[in-house]
Amino acid sequence: AVRRPHGTADTVPHVDGARLLRRIDRFSRIGGAEDGGVTRMGFSEADREARARLVSEARAAGLETSVDAGGNVFISRSTVRPKSPARPRILIGSHLDTVANGGRLDGAYGVLAGLEVLQCLAESGTVTGCDVVVVAFANEEGALFPQPFWGSMVLAGRLDALPSEPRDHAGRPLREALALAGGDLSDLASAVWAPDSVVGYLELHVEQGPVLERLGLPIGVVDSITGRTQLTVEVTGVAGHAGTSPMEGRRDPLVAAAEAVLSVERLAREDRLCRVATVGWLEVTANSPNTIPGCVRFSVDIRDSDSAGLAAAEQALRATLADLAERREVRIAIEVAVRTDRVRTDPRLRQEIAAAAADLGLACEAMPSGAGHDAQVVADIAPVGMIFVPSVDGVSHVPAERTAPEHLTAGAEVLLRTVLRL
Ligand code: GLV
Ligand code: MN
Ligand code: MN
Ligand code: MN
Question: I need a surface site. Which of 35, 69, 302, 372 has the fewest CB within 10 A?
Fold first, then answer.
């Protein structure tokens, strides 16, 4: 039998779908372009504007807000204490930052739905068994500062895996950008949550793939989140004049990088060492038509549910790059931006999400996530659950990213019901 949330069915509060949709619309204009794309890279000016807007809208709703040293924004009905909460608490949220020219929903949807849930609980005076805390994790995408999952890694205490003086691709220090966002690089330890300080973390997100749409389902219950390794590769050669330097003896890092890009594709496509492998970012210096480049940097993103597969793919790539460096007489340096294994969501939270969907008469199905999420990092310290809603045409990280309004509202309803069941 389905356990009813607190109160009888007709006293259960409902989210204000129209208010949520309006809010999503307002936030999509922060860093928004004509074509519907959003560029709100972590710790950029647009990101700061979105964070400030979140804080002001939460306060206008009578809620309390705070920012931790890692730059994560929290919203709650009473003051958030990282170390020793007086009552059990549930964390719900996602991230407000986006990739370059991404969509309006990836991340922001989960944060704004979290705010809607909290606002709805506060307005209806609903007493919950746990304190509900909404979080907007800082720099989940790592688009500007190449440390994806920055905020959740801080919260989960993975400080050793973070660089001590992070910089963006142009060499600008995170220290300053973080301070502008209300954080403090010297005090990250104060932002770490103890493993027993949170009963569960729930993240509502657009699927970003085609599965739910194909199945005709409004809700997905995530059972696992893909493992992922992201590297930044720097190839240094010898710059020169395109017209006067003979082909013989050139040490062109871009030609070397071109070979490297093909070998990244091969990892997944031919060698099947991992599920997918992508080079999505590449920067050429000097980037001038009549100059042989001196330096090229690019990202490598490889994903698989099997950690052995991920490790094998990384190892194979490192061997290929070493060989390439020798053959083309260039220097190749590799930095690890992030390494995370596949993570399973919590069985009990999965059950509660499915029961919440059933309460609402919404069909759902268990499914894996091929995208990365803060939930996979928070899983270090707490049980995590994820709710997916369908993505139109299965696309994301592009301006065309969309989800039907009724699905956006349904996801928020399921989030609210799940919170009430805990
Ligand atoms: C998330 O944005 C990812 O890259 O999977
Ligand atoms: Mn994303
Ligand atoms: Mn996301
Ligand atoms: Mn992401």
Answer: 35
